Amino acid sequence: MLAAALSEVVPKAAQVLLSLVLICSACVELSLESPSTNYREVEGAWVYLTNPNSVFERAVQFLMEGPAQDLRAGQSIVEGVVRTNAASADRWASLGGLLVKTGHPDKGQYCLLRAIELAPNTADTAISVANFYIDRKQFGKALPYLGRVLGTTNRSETVFNAFDTMQLSFNDIVANGGIPDRPGVAEGYFQHLLENGDLANSREAWDWLKARTPDDQLAQAYLDFLLARGHVNDAAEVWRWQMGTRWPDFGKTSFVLNGDFEHQPNGPLFDWRIAPDPHVEASCDNQVARSGSASLRLDFDGKVNSTFEGVSQSVFVPRGTYRFEAFVRTSGITTDEGIGFRVRNRQVPSSPRVETERIKGTNDWKRLEGKFVIDAPVAVIEIAVFRRPSLRFDSLIAGTAWIDQVSVTPVN
């Protein structure tokens, strides 16, 4: 309250000093060997020992005497406070910050380093030391302290913003100790780079992360980032590398993941995406299969007549000719518009590459197929289960369809 009341009369530098003194004095009650003494002189400044408010009030008196004495008086008081408890990292850090602000960077640096020595895992102190070096463009000295913060606290956004300020490459940050070996830290910074649209550093970060087996969700985020910026070739390399670590032929002779639906689709770009639909229930059926032990089952409730594209998977294919193939079984699919597949280029969605026959009624397993050509170095194609809306009066679709053995393979 007192600092606020003086805001109109105390110079800005003095207000900074007042705040520092209040912080230092209010945290810990001062004590010396003479408990009955209420004050003693420390290098010309009267430092009160038992009442933090008295320290602050005395500091106000010094700071109000005029601009020529503001900084000297405040500095003397803070030095006195530090001397009464030289083991307090907070007090050393406060004195260091004050010395830096008053034009004594060497002494300020000494105090800040003393503070971090006393409290090596205190985030605020580490950030103060890092900011000292950042302000002086000594980034290599700042990075280990920022890395220490990332390694011991959840202050990641503060540190990532400091990385942005320094405008260093990801490799430079890693080489100078800015990224600790703590799970999730590098991944978090990678997400930060993607959110900032930093293409160059995200590439460096991805190359570094590959040796640490990034999960599919992180790879998905990077793929979306690259595709949104038109870097299809780079996205295809990420896709092939991520899948190739588990399936060596993936992206070479095999292009559809989980085409037999032997496990529950999990949704990333590498697997089937099933959009929620209140009128269509999608599930893995372990009782019906053409190959393996499961298939995808779609149950239509007969209440709507709509376009359906709720099951899809995107894959990257290089230049060449390909055969698409899938098997569909149906039971009681109503209306004249049944269930089929559509394959189209995601970059040109209005021009389907393949649109198969659509099956209605009741049928045993039936092959749906088609050929398509990719004339670009690489393209992203979307494979989708497809149904057009019916134009007839009895247009509400009901019944069940099963899907199995979906594949895209090169033709010679």
Quick rundown:
With 412 residues, this protein is α+β, with helices and mostly antiparallel strands.
CATH 2nd-level architecture of one domain: Sandwich
State the shape.
elongated
Helix content: 40-55%
What's the number of helices? 14
Derived from helix and strand composition plus strand pairing, the structural class reads alpha+beta
User: So, the CATH homologous superfamily of one domain?
Assistant: Galactose-binding domain-like
Structure description:
This protein has 412 residues and is an alpha+beta fold. Among the domains are: 2-119, Tetratricopeptide repeat domain (Serine Threonine Protein Phosphatase 5, Tetratricopeptide repeat, Alpha Horseshoe); 273-410, Galactose-binding domain-like (Jelly Rolls), CATH 2.60.120. It is built from 14 helices and ten strands. The strands form two sheets. Strands 3, 4, 5, 6, 7, 8, 9 and 10 form an eight-stranded antiparallel beta sheet that branches. It has a two-stranded antiparallel sheet with strand order 1-2. The longest helix is centred in the first third of the chain and has 18 residues, at 67-84. The termini are far apart.
List the helices and strands and how they pair.
Layout: H1 2-5, H2 12-27, E1 39-42, E2 45-48, H3 52-63, H4 67-84, H5 89-101, H6 105-118, H7 123-135, H8 139-152, H9 156-166, H10 170-175, H11 185-195, H12 199-210, H13 216-228, H14 232-244, E3 273-274, E4 280-285, E5 295-301, E6 311-333, E7 340-345, E8 348-355, E9 361-386, E10 398-410
Helix pairs in contact: 2-3, 2-4, 2-5, 3-4, 4-5, 5-6, 6-7, 7-8, 8-9, 11-12, 13-14
